[in-house]
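pasting for the record
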Amino acid sequence: MIKKKQFIELLYNALDTEEEMTDHFYKYTTDSLKYYKWLSEDKRKQISEITTKLRSDCQRHKNMVEKLIKHVQESEENVL
């Protein structure tokens, strides 16, 4: 069993990790595409669309984790 406070801390850590990874990955990939002259324009566009989709999916996941944190914080239960 895990106490509510510990669970909330784990969720915040997961949220921080996801935000950091998403921001770094998206920025790195977007910046790198400028220098990959050997890639065709179609391939660069395809990679850009994929990373944008991943960023959008990560934002949706972040929102779900934030809702879960709120739900756990408002819950009367102390142990999960």
